[in-house]
Amino acid sequence: MLHQLVQYARDHNLAVEPGFKPKDVRWLIVLDDNGQFLDIMELGDTDDRRNKGRSFLSPDMSQPQMKSGGIIKSHFLTDALDVVLLYGKNADDPKTIKKHEYFKNFLLLASSSMPVLKIMSDVLTDADKIELIRQRAAEKKIKDTDKITFQIGDILPLETSDWHDWWRSFLKNLSGQSGDQQQTLVSGSMRCFISGGLVDPEKTHPKISGLGDVGGQASGSVMIGFDKDSFASYNLEQSKNAAVSVTMAAAYRAALDHLIKNSAKRFGGVKIIHWFKGKIADQDDPLSWLEETGEQAELNAIARARKMLESIHSGERPDLKENYYYSMTMSGAGGRVMLRDWMEGRFENLVENILCWFEDLSIVNVKDGALAPPCKFLAVLGSTVRVLDDLAAPHIAAMLRVAIRQEMIPMHFLAAALNRFKINAIQDNYIHAASPGLLKAYHIRKNRMKGGLNMSDVLKPGLNEDHPDPAYHCGRLMAVLAALQRSALGDVGAGIIQRYYAAASATPALVLGRLTRTSQFHLDKLEGGLRYWYQDKIASIWSRIRDYPPRMLNLEEQSLFALGYYQQLADLRTKKSDNSHNEKEQEL
Question: Which of 51, 200, 426, 511 has the greatest count of CB atoms below 10 A from its CB?
Answer without folding.
Answer: 511
